[in-house]
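Could you please review the protein record set out just below?
***
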Amino acid sequence: MPTRRVIPIAASRASWSHDSVKLTLGSAFAVATLASASWAQHSEHQHAPEPKGPTLFQSDMALMAGMTPRDPMADMKMAGWSWMVMGVARIVFNDQGGPSGATVGESTNWNMVMGHHDLGPGRLTLMMMNSLEPATLHDDGSPQLFQTGEAFQGRPLVDRQHAHDFFMNLSATWRWPFGAEAAVWIQAAPVGDPALGPTAFMHRASSGENPASPLGHHWQDSTHVTSSVVTLGGGWGSWALEGSGFHGEEPDEHRWGIDGGGLDSYSGRLAYRGRGPWSAQVSYGRLEDPEQLEPGDLKRTTASIHYRARGDGPIAASLIWGRNDEEHGVSDGLLLEGAYAVTGRDQVFARTEYVEKNQTLLATKALPPEGEPVDLAAIRALTLGYLRDLPYVGIGGDITVYDYPSGLEGAYGEHPLAAHVFLRFRWSLGSHGGTH
């Protein structure tokens, strides 16, 4: 294995650069209009709830899908189906500074439909999660400085966060309880989330209203949209053990379909979800040829600890570590994030990261020749943000500063700033358990 050499961080001065707005906002406004209409329809029947924590719609997704030992609805027999619809849409002004940045208007969004029904001695849960980001983001994704992962038109995506697929999740889970403290479950998903890593960033209470993905996304939680997933799990009390088989290749650039593929990869996860505010997980996975442009398997190890992961308090926080062991070397990503509901309508959020990334890729926007040693650049980022939650819309913004090796100043300038200003719409219809 090549020797890993991490290039130290150097300080520099501020620089701004703006590209012209490239995205027509019609599709983004359509998403927001649908979201607002859905909220208004719901409000005819009841008043909008006061937020109980950092967010109403980030939650413990494993609990919602029935993949935990405990289930607060386990003793409630259902006469038929119980359905829930929930989602988020943001209209975003995204300004990424420096020579590698761009300024665009765009929309990030997702919608989830979930149904529960008693089946035999257990309960069946069906989930479908969709995103219109293939239409509301640029074809090469959302501008984001120092972001890497996946490919577009035969080139690696650099300084761009790819859009989510239209089908983010399409799964069926059957959970068989043994009293109130133990259960086993099995999940089959043409598109799903294997037992690898923490809850994805857009569903973490600790992410709050942050519209951006972590720079360590492809070290920590990028498998949340994965093809051909089969998961078997079980647990007792606060502990759960799960194993998954899945197709290891990352989604391709054709975002509207389902990629499919054979079960060529595997993962395992041990999770702790106590009755109190703390939860944690450790996981390991082997992914076969995940990158389209970089042949070779990837071994990923993650560990994380979370405070108020269910969003059931005014403060939520996460500490997450991920390591990728690839043929060309080993790299790490570390994240600390939190959100605080100062009042029922005011939220602040923050995220700080340390990630080791391919310096040649960042500097040239191209992969180094095969077999050439890989130098890792230590990238640090700090994001601070705020959102004001109004009856039908949230208005928010954030700013991110970076620290990185001086050898990257030619590509990024000196101290580029990144900022978002956004309107956030959200909706929730139907009855559901858990805390949101």
In short: The domain at 5-430 is CATH 2.40.160.10 (Porin). Confidence is low (pLDDT under 50) at residues 9-57, 432-436. The longest helix spans residues 26-43. DSSP finds six helices and 19 strands in the chain.
